Amino acid sequence: METLLPQLLGLAIRGLVSYLGVQAANEVLDQTRQKMVDDQRGPNDAELNGLLASIKARSDRIQNA
Amino acid sequence: MRLTPFMILLVVMPLLAACPGSDIPGYNELDQTLVGEEAARKSVYDAAASYVPVQVVFENVVGDPTLPPNLKAAIQQVDREVVAAINDYNAAVAALGPAADGTTEKLTALISVLQRAQNLLLQLQAEGALS
To answer: pTM of the prediction?
Structure first.
């Protein structure tokens, strides 16, 4: 039990971090999507390039982990 | 009972499933009205955006020092392939247009590697469940 509790705590924290990360990423995407719907347009160059840049930056961190 | 890093994914996966890519009303209907470059950019945007939640989980898991090297390498490999496929598709849309055969091939390749990334998440989940 003494060893299980820290592991459970670590599991919960890591799960929360992933959850918050996914939520934050989806919130940014949804804000952009909402703008597109409001303006009845597709993504502009800045929005598309911003998304591609964020994926590249996250990929760099994965590769360097 | 010993908790493994992969059991993290047992927690993460249901949470991930609860976070759909988009439920913005009217967003998917844009496909019926957009044409030309706008439609092309949206197709790239949607394809790239579908990888974001998976990539966030990969980023969180890959830094765990207890993650076995073969699984870390698998995550890094599939991430490299997805990013390369997104770039290839984006380049094909820009150079050939969204409806060209060459572009369709790049999109098919991207969908394939995105599916492999999803499968890797499921594999990690399964290994956690078995350990």
So the answer is: 0.81
